[in-house]
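**Archive record**
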Amino acid sequence: MPQTAEPAAQEQTVAAVRQALAEVLDRELPDLGPDAKLFDDYGLDSTGVLDLLMRLEEVLDVEFDTEELEMSHFATVRTLADYVAAAR
């Protein structure tokens, strides 16, 4: 059975993803929920993905293996938060 992050840690990761995305897109995202589609709903692009990852690395003190990155990790806020949590 896969291990899930504690709710507080998971919420911290989701909050960090929301904040970093708002900074990358340079706009407020008050309605950004865990199932928001980063590319379709918010216009994230490949350059934004790199910026987003760098910001998350700084904020969460984590390092991502770019060899493991897949576009599916960036489908929604939740999938990105799960990927980030797994890297921690």
User: Anything to note?
Assistant: The chain has a mean pLDDT of 87. The helical segments are 7-25, 46-60, 77-87. The CA atoms of residues 28 and 45 lie 17 Å apart.
